[in-house]
Design brief:
Elements: H1 8-27, H2 29-35, H3 43-46, H4 52-57, E1 64-67, H5 71-87, E2 93-97, H6 100-109, E3 115-118, H7 124-134, E4 138-142, H8 148-156, E5 161-166, H9 170-178, H10 180-188, E6 192-195, H11 198-206, E7 214-216, E8 243-249, H12 253-267, E9 272-277, H13 283-292, E10 297-299, E11 313-315, H14 322-326, E12 331-334, H15 347-350, E13 356-358, H16 366-375, E14 378-380, H17 384-396, H18 398-414, H19 417-432
Parallel strand pairs: 1-2, 1-4, 2-3, 4-5, 5-6, 6-7, 8-9, 8-12, 9-11, 10-11, 12-13, 13-14
Helix pairs in contact: 5-6, 7-8, 9-10, 12-17
């Protein structure tokens, strides 16, 4: 199918800007190595130059290509890929990411993937080269990974593309509307949309997508994931008190949490906070905050489980362990929500039956946040005072906390149908092709 002539200029402009950005990045190449190690990690794969072991892993097959941009999407892909492996043991499964942490998460939590790579840069000649070399039977895009040239190239090569766990925030919808000439023909080339909820489906439909292509399948982050056994928390004094887990925190949230901590410690001197920043590159920054406040802390990467000095904060400076540590919590706070980052996966603590606290900025997880609030499994907090009051109340009223945790678990259990609905859409698309 050829692109409509009136729309062609906008793609030319988009590609001109992309090539200009690539040229600038190449000019700044030496500076990137000086300022940030690993900034060009995976560059060969981003240019569709794949190592021999990747091509050998996929040899003779047309893989299903699942794209999960970063850590959250990679974790949400795990149960889907596990279900695919059970249904199609002989099919090859390729997973791509944008970030290095996402790639590492795939390696850690998705053993069923045959290969993992970086998504190629969204330049016409690169995405065409990538798709021709890897020859996927289908591409599955998780959440909001809409790359215009990649999707257009897949359509041209008759490779169906399917969006699963799809979401489109109000801000994203406004951006798509503003650049409608670019995104409308791209959305038209996507074979099917499995959206998280009616609200997200409505935003896609408002952009002009064919209603026959749009289904509400739910969020894959609601699908059941085996987080593994509970970790052991070093406790040299044998007197460990209540545990508050603050996960996926962003800049500005750690300060609020650490301002609340002294009030909790006055009530519960043996309380432990497990603090897990969302982005690994901020581990050192958060450690400096702990030092500045003269708090006793230990880094998870340095705990041995043997002899350890007493501490008030564990800095979770490792990847992939947060879901397990939620299981140790008496109360959990999920970050990216006190600051306008859209919020992160509320189901991780809910699956353990824990009371879930989160801030007002939940555009990425709006339906889940609403459900937790309506069912009484979650509480919205807006700052330090709310955190102090709500955490203290839950720790002092164990029966209330347990009941709230059970309600959170019931919300998580309701998400188990997401996998079945998502797999139904995948099977239908594989039967129908493009």
């Amino acid at each position: 199918m050829k692109d409509a002539p009136p729309r062609e200029p906008v793609f030319s402009l988009y590609n001109t800007l992309l090539h200009a950005a690539l040229l600038l990045a190449l000019l700044l190449w030496p500076l990137g190595f000086v300022l940030r190690r690993g900034v060009y990690r995976g560059l060969r794969e981003r240019f569709a130059a794949y190592p021999a072991e990747l091509e050998a892993a996929l040899a003779g097959a047309r893989p299903i290509w699942i794209h999960a941009a970063s850590v959250g999407e990679a974790r949400s892909a795990a149960p889907l890929i596990r279900r695919m492996r059970l249904k199609w043991p002989d099919r090859k499964l390729l997973v791509s990411t944008v970030t290095a942490t996402g790639r590492q998460t795939v390696r850690d939590v998705i053993p069923d993937a045959d290969a993992v790579t970086y998504l190629p840069l969204d330049l016409p000649w690169l995405v065409s080269r990538s798709l021709r070399r890897l020859r996927p039977e289908m591409v599955i895009l998780l959440e909001t990974e809409i790359w215009p040239n990649f999707i257009r190239a897949a359509h041209r090569l008759r490779i169906p593309t399917l969006v699963l766990s799809g979401r489109l925030s109000p801000r994203g919808a406004r951006m798509y509307e503003r650049f409608r000439a670019l995104f409308r023909p791209v959305l038209d080339r996507i074979s099917s949309f499995g959206m998280q909820d009616d609200e997200n489906a409505g935003r896609v439909l408002h952009l002009g997508v064919d209603p026959l292509k749009v289904t509400v399948t739910g969020s894959l982050k609601s699908a059941e994931v085996d987080a593994g056994p509970l970790p052991e928390i070093p406790d040299p004094g044998g007197k460990r008190g209540p545990v508050v887990v603050a996960g996926s925190t962003h800049r500005g949230e750690e300060e609020i949490l650490l301002e609340a901590l002294p009030a909790w410690l006055r009530m519960y001197p043996d309380l432990l906070m497990i603090l897990a920043p969302r982005h690994p590159e901020r581990f050192a920054e958060v450690e400096r905050l702990l030092r500045q406040r003269e708090l006793r802390y230990r880094k998870r990467s340095e705990t041995s489980g043997e002899q350890a000095a007493d501490y008030t904060v564990m800095l979770l400076d490792t990847l992939g362990e947060l879901p397990r540590y939620y299981g140790c919590a008496d109360v959990a706070f999920v970050g990216g929500s006190l600051v306008p980052a859209g919020g992160h996966n509320l189901m991780e603590p809910a699956r353990w039956g824990k009371p879930v606290l989160f801030g007002p900025h939940c555009s990425n997880i709006a339906e889940t946040a609403r459900e937790l609030l309506q069912q009484g499994g979650g509480i919205e907090v807006r700052g330090r005072d709310d955190l102090v009051r709500e955490v203290a109340g839950l720790l002092s009223e164990s029966a209330r906390a347990s009941a709230m945790g059970r309600r959170a678990r019931s919300v998580a259990d309701a998400g188990k149908e997401v996998l079945s609905r998502s797999m139904t859409l995948v099977c239908r698309q594989l039967r129908h092709g493009s």
